[in-house]
Write a structure and sequence with these properties.
It contains 15 helices and 14 strands. It is α/β, with parallel strands linked by helices. Strands 1, 2, 3, 4, 5, 6, 7 and 8 form an eight-stranded parallel sheet that branches. A six-stranded parallel sheet has the order 11-10-9-12-13-14, with helices on both faces. The model has no long low-confidence stretch (mean pLDDT about 95).
Length: about 375
């Protein structure tokens, strides 16, 4: 049996990366792998439901700790000190589940995989030179660098060409039947139709205010349409205020966070995501798994999932996005269901887990070379 240790920035905030890691560790062959997980920052939003055979190690710092910022200095500048104290040394393989902090804590001299879940173009922005330098250094510890989408891959090649030979693309996977089963659970939410749905935090990257601008254009042509936000965040009050200013607050609904979002997703007509950047968002995979077409900005994985624009539309401007929504609202419903099912089968969980295990075995076998 081989021992695999995952390092993730946060495993308790109810995000997409957490959900994906939970799915992976719960489906890896328990007779083949012994799994450990350590989160750097501990929050209290959601406790991920991992199997009993998976060991959760002590976190590095709490999200609301008064000394969080000062303690993070050591993660960035004294890697070995943090690794020695928090990272067990008796595992066969170490996997950092995103870039920056998790990759910093990969132990030197071990078999390592850096699994990147979003594009890294932010490291090219002004003021990020130090982080980019540290990331380049951390990547030298990795035997493989895993990218989850087209845009993530391109960003890694553009910013870190010296590491491109170790790049491997592994698109996200999804447990389709589990999502559909959980969608059957009861919910008090009853959507009014036509219904557009945004899934995710209300923060700057998710760009909920841009979605509101797009929705306003749709509303001017379809006054019966409604927009729902599933999630919460720092921009919640901004969304409410903007909806009031636009005179559409009666058609904009903020639902807050739901541990099981699927009974809500299955009610919508179209899923919308206008993030500034994404790796390969689980929210879109989950929407398509529930037979819901989507409209998105140009984000990682969206074009792949849209499958030739047949079950989704990837748009650049607000006008294009509004037109795409109106088009999908008028599309043949049964055809959309079939297109969604055709697309999502390419990301079925069984094949996804097989590819992960093949990758792990490939890296582990290099020990003897």
């Amino acid at each position: 049996m081989k021992k695999v240790f995952f390092i993730i920035n946060c495993f308790s905030a109810g995000g997409g990366a957490e959900s994906l890691l939970t799915q992976i560790v719960n489906h890896l062959d328990a007779n083949k792998y012994e799994i450990g997980i350590m989160e750097i920052i501990h929050d209290s939003i959601k406790e991920e439901p991992v199997n009993s055979n998976i060991k959760i190690y002590p976190h590095y710092v709490k999200a609301d700790a008064p000394d969080r910022k000062s303690r993070m200095y050591y993660v960035y500048h004294e890697w070995d000190r943090v690794i020695q104290e928090y990272i067990p040394q008796d595992y066969d393989l170490y996997v950092s589940f995103n870039y920056l902090k998790p990759t910093f804590l990969l132990p030197k001299g071990k078999k390592n995989i850096a699994w990147i879940h979003g594009d890294v173009y932010n490291l090219a922005q002004p003021g990020m030179a130090e982080e980019r330098k540290l990331q380049a250094e951390a990547f030298y510890k990795a035997d493989r660098i895993v990218s989850i989408s087209d845009i993530t891959t391109q960003s890694l090649v553009d910013l870190f060409p010296e590491h491109k030979e170790r790049l491997r693309i592994l698109y996200n996977g999804i447990d389709i039947e589990k999502v559909r089963k959980k969608a059957e659970e009861p919910t008090e939410i009853q959507m009014r139709h036509p219904a557009l749905l945004s899934i995710g935090r209300l923060d700057a990257n998710k760009n909920p205010l841009r979605l509101l601008d797009v929705f306003e254009k749709v509303y001017r042509k379809r006054t019966d349409v409604h927009l729902y936000y599933l999630g919460y965040g720092s921009l919640e009050e901004d969304v409410k205020r903007a909806a009031e200013e636009k005179g559409i607050c009666g058609h904009v609904h903020l639902l807050g966070y739901h541990a099981n979002p699927f009974p809500v997703i299955t009610q919508c007509d179209i899923s919308c995501m206008f993030s500034l950047a994404e790796g390969f968002p689980m929210a879109l995979l989950e929407s398509v798994a529930l037979d819901k077409p989507f409209v998105s900005s140009v984000i990682g994985g969206a074009r792949i999932l849209a499958n030739g624009q047949r079950c989704g539309r990837v748009t650049e401007t607000d006008g294009e996005a509004a037109d795409a929504i109106l088009e999908l609202l008028n599309a043949d419903r049964e055809q959309m269901v079939q297109e969604c099912r055709t697309s999502i089968q390419r990301f079925a969980l069984g094949e996804y887990i097989r590819q992960i295990e093949d990758l792990f075995d490939e890296v582990l076998e290099e020990l003897s070379e």
